[in-house]
Write a structure and sequence with these properties.
The structure holds two protein chains of two kinds. The mean pLDDT of chain A is 89. The longest helix of chain A has 43 residues. In chain A, α7 packs antiparallel against α8 and α7 runs parallel beside α11. Chain A is built from eleven helices and four strands; from the N terminus they run ααααααααβββααβα. Chain A is an alpha+beta fold. Chain A folds into two domains: 244 residues, no CATH class; 80 residues, no CATH class. By secondary structure, chain B is α/β, with parallel strands linked by helices. Helix content of chain B is 35%, strand content 24%. In chain B, the strands form two sheets. Chain B has a six-stranded mixed sheet, with helices on both faces. Chain B has a three-stranded antiparallel sheet with strand order 2-1-4, with helices on one face. Classes of the chains: A alpha+beta, B alpha/beta. The interface between A and B is medium-sized, with 25 and 30 residues.
């Protein structure tokens, strides 16, 4: 049965291999060009750290002007690949057979429909995931060569960085693929499956990207009035912020806003000279003692990736079970 | 593995009040029917009589709206076709990008009872080039490949939906002769549908006449034609009676 599925998918598999080869060649070439640029701009020392000599240097700006877009395109390719896997491999997998009536051929041999489905899924999905992982690592290898001169500087939780790291791309790809097969099995129309699958995938990706960070237990830091919290700059994922009263309890947002506004008003009415100090004195008197932030440090990004994979992987499993049920239904 | 399985004890098909309704209406109504073993059964009726629907119900591709059906004692399900049954659908579905050899390979890989030598023999008999892609074959050649795929499985019950429609008269005769020989030698049951009774007269030994989703006539040919009326005349008479009843109702 594997042979039949392989023969059916041969054209797609060859295309996939082509994508891998072209992608790998492009990354290798771009990376070596980029390293050449780093060396000729004498920025080799700035890849690993952001010293003052790097931050101000005109050379760093010139490097960024030239290489930020190519690097972002590399990341965008990894972000886009799961959607393409869903549209071009997942959606037509069953829809095309159901549309052309060739599923009757498969359904009337001595192979159970479930085995037929599983062999098709495996032959289509496994090579796609392997190619995706390979390209993901190639792009990651390229990004590492730019270090903090490149997009990595915006931290692991930046949308572009988060979506191309750890298990997330594979989870998105499996989800997109399962979504495509499910919509295809239900609609029995290739074009419907491709477009509807892509639409739902895009919506799900955006809708769930905010949610994921909130499912990891956060840490909390507090700052005295007038001080800034480091977590806003060090690449942490801030999931909550607000005020604490003198006994350390969270002040509800609307109340805190009202008190804050009242303090600001009293200060502006009083005058201008020492307004900032007066404002800071007013806050604890009204019951706003400190500010706090709930955050996930960058070093724990892997936990967020695992939550991400659990959500998208879980949805994919449900969709595949749904596909199996639809295919085993008699019309 | 070449030794023939003992023919089944259970009857090939027992339909008990089976009916099927599509959105457009009833295709088959309350049909009770037994298809005995070792017969070549002609399933005859005008277009839309319910022939394909009956076959779909036997394969499990369709689910009955009323009643039940058993195939060799088992109820057809959506899990897969009964291993003893082979089915050739009216559209002759094949993968157009497969070559003929690859199509037979598909049969070999998906059927444990596959007889490669026999399947190849059937294709060669039809003079279909093995290396040709199925999509480039003529309608008749495609039918012969699809038939080889169905027969190569060495089924106990062979369902053929309008198998002769795309064939020229010479090929029809060859195909019918092949089926006849297969049925006699292996003791299998063949269910052939057609809207032209004359095509199958002389080959079939059992007749099921469908009209408007109902069975008008069912039985062994020698018993049906015992009273001296020809089979064609008998079928025509029954259909006229049915039409007259419909008009009266």
């Amino acid at each position: 049965m594997i042979w039949v599925s392989w023969r059916r998918q041969r054209a797609q598999l060859i295309t996939l291999l082509g994508v891998l080869l072209v992608g790998a060649a492009a990354v290798v070439l771009l990376r070596s060009n980029m390293i050449g640029a780093i060396e000729s701009l004498q920025l080799t020392g700035c890849v690993a750290q952001t010293g003052p000599e790097c931050a101000d240097a005109d050379a760093a700006d010139r490097f960024r002007a030239a290489w930020t877009n190519p690097l972002h395109l590399g990341q965008a390719a990894i972000l886009l690949l799961p959607a393409l896997i869903g549209v071009f491999l997942g959606a037509p997998l069953f829809a095309r057979e159901l549309e052309q009536g060739t599923h009757v051929l498969a359904f009337t041999q001595s192979v159970s429909r479930t085995r037929w489905m599983v062999s098709k899924l495996v032959v289509a999905l496994v090579p796609a995931v392997v190619v995706l992982i390979a390209l993901q690592h190639l792009v990651s290898w390229w990004l590492s060569a730019a270090g903090v001169l490149g997009p990595r500087n915006s931290g692991s939780f930046h949308f572009l960085n988060f979506g191309v790291e750890h298990v997330s791309p594979v989870a998105y790809a499996v989800f997109a693929f399962a979504l495509g097969t499910f919509v295809g099995a239900v609609s029995r129309r290739t074009l419907v499956a491709m477009t509807a699958g892509l639409g739902v995938f895009t919506v799900a990706r955006f809708a769930l990207s905010d949610l994921v960070g909130h499912l990891v237990p956060p840490q909390r830091v507090e700052a005295a009035l007038g001080e800034d919290l480091k977590v806003y700059q060090d690449g942490s994922l801030v999931t909550g912020r607000g005020w604490l009263d003198t006994s350390g309890r969270v002040v509800p947002d609307d109340r805190a806003d009202a008190l804050n506004l009242a303090c600001k008003r009293s200060v502006t009415e009083a005058g201008t000279a020492k307004s900032q100090e007066e404002y800071l004195a007013c806050l604890p008197e009204s019951g706003l003692a400190t500010t706090y932030a709930d955050f996930v440090p960058e070093s724990l990004a892997w936990q967020v990736h695992l939550v991400d994979a659990a959500i998208f992987g879980g949805l994919a499993v449900l969709l595949l079970v749904g596909t199996a049920l639809v295919l085993r239904r008699q019309s | 593995m070449n030794s023939r399985r003992q023919p089944h004890q259970a009857l090939p098909v027992i339909a008990d009040g089976v009916g099927k309704r599509y959105r457009r209406g009833w295709a088959l109504r309350e049909t009770s029917l037994v298809i005995p073993q070792r017969r070549i059964v002609a399933l005859v009726g005008p277009n839309g009589a319910g022939k394909s629907t009956l076959m779909g119900l036997i394969t499990g591709l369709l689910r009955p709206t009323t009643g039940g059906i058993t195939v060799f004692g088992d109820r057809p399900t959506g899990k897969g076709l009964h291993p003893e049954v082979a089915y050739l659908a009216q559209q002759k579905p094949l993968y157009p990008q497969f070559t003929v050899t690859e199509t037979l390979m598909l049969g070999a890989r998906t059927n444990p009872t596959w007889d490669q030598g026999y399947a190849e023999h059937l294709v060669e008999q039809a003079a279909v080039p093995l290396s040709a892609k199925v999509g480039t074959l003529s309608g008749g050649q495609r039918t012969r490949v699809a038939l080889a795929l169905a027969l190569g499985k060495r089924p106990s019950l062979l369902l053929l939906d309008e198998p002769l429609a795309d064939l020229d008269p010479l090929a029809r005769e060859t195909v019918l002769r092949t089926l006849l020989a297969e049925a006699r030698e292996q003791g299998i049951t063949v269910l052939l549908s057609s809207h032209v009774l004359a095509e199958l007269e002389g080959v079939c030994d059992h007749l099921v006449l469908l009209h408007g989703g109902r069975v008008l006539l069912a039985g062994d040919v020698d018993q049906l034609s015992a009273r001296g009326t020809s089979l064609g005349q008998l079928a025509l008479n029954r259909m006229r009676e049915a039409a007259a009843q419909e008009e009266a109702a």
